[in-house]
Write a structure and sequence with these properties.
Layout (H helix, E strand, L loop, with lengths): L1 H10 L5 E2 L4 H11 L2 E2 L3 H5 L4 E4 L4 H8 L5 H4 L5 E4 L5 H13 L3 E4 L2 E2 L1 H7 L2 E6 L2 H11 L3 E8 L3 H29 L4 H8 L7 H11 L9 H18 L4 H15 L16
Parallel strand pairs: 1-2, 3-4, 4-5, 7-8
Antiparallel strand pairs: 6-7
Length: 276
């Protein structure tokens, strides 16, 4: 997702320096979009006014942000580090403290909208940050987003993303069960979805995944592996704050079933495979 997000920044007129742990990807991006390739995260951050990251998990963020060759080591005083990774709230607070100790600013800014949203520039961004750095980065992030909102202090963006994933997990499971039930009942389920999408059952998942679930197509979209990573963060946070998430825990195990069927890289809508 970072590739198209960076492309939107370049298209908006920003001078973009890119780093990728697979150097060839960075070179290809520059060949297609212009800008400059950096050999290390630190080099990418040097002389930059804003630094953006979008990687996989907590360990990945630490690997590119901390240490002698990390982004924080290369950033000038008052530069803002924006992390678009879906990671833990604890990590966001940790990076905030690291940044402030160096005279830097930090914004945790996980996104919703998936690869298609990154490509189209229509992501929704949930931010945890102090007010001033948030206001500085918001207009820049609008190059690839349709909404950028400050939820609260550091960590609040990550917690809001967890709410997002909790809601998605329940909706996808409900949609899978509804489609499976309709098929067993002998209904024209495509017609049923067309009808009920005009009423209270309507959802993004129904509009964007209903037909592909009917067609048993899952070779695209947000991978099950990533959803399980996200739900792991959710369930860990719930253990810490005492929230009860019985449905989320159940759907997480359903996704484990999909992984065992070889569906680690299938779209999350593949939950319906368990019901066929």
């Amino acid at each position: 997702m970072g590739g198209p997000m960076a492309r939107h920044l370049a298209a908006a007129g920003h001078q973009v320096t890119v780093y990728n742990r697979t150097a060839e990807r960075a070179r290809r991006w520059v060949a297609q979009n212009g800008g400059r390739v950096a050999a290390t995260p630190r080099q990418a951050a040097e002389d930059s006014e804003l630094v953006f990251a979008c990687v996989g998990n907590d360990d990945d963020v630490r690997a590119i942000a901390l240490g002698e060759q990390g982004t924080l080591a290369g950033m000038k005083r008052d530069t803002i580090f924006v992390d678009h990774t879906t990671a833990s709230a604890q990590l966001a607070r940790e990076l905030y403290e690291h940044a402030r100790a160096r005279g830097l600013q930090f914004v945790d800014a996980p996104v919703s909208g998936g690869q298609s949203g990154a490509e189209a520039g229509t992501l929704t961004i949930m931010c945890g940050a102090d007010a001033a750095p948030f206001e500085s980065v918001r207009p820049v992030c609008m190059a690839y987003a349709r909404a950028v909102t400050r939820i609260g202090p550091a960590g609040a963006g990550q917690l809001a993303k967890m709410v997002n994933q909790i809601c998605i997990a329940g909706v996808v499971q409900g949609l899978a069960e509804g489609i499976a039930f309709g098929q067993k009942a002998g209904l024209d389920v495509a017609l049923v979805l067309e009808v009920i999408s005009k009423g209270a059952a309507q959802s993004w998942q129904m509009d964007n995944r209903g037909r592909t679930m009917l067609e048993d197509r899952f070779d695209f979209g947000f991978a099950v592996d990533w959803m399980r990573k996200d739900l792991g963060l959710v369930l860990d946070a719930a253990r810490r704050n005492g929230a009860r998430l019985p449905l989320t825990a159940l759907v997480d195990q359903f996704y484990a079933d999909i992984q065992s069927q070889g569906g680690s890289r299938w779209d999350t809508s593949s939950l319906i495979r368990r019901l066929r």
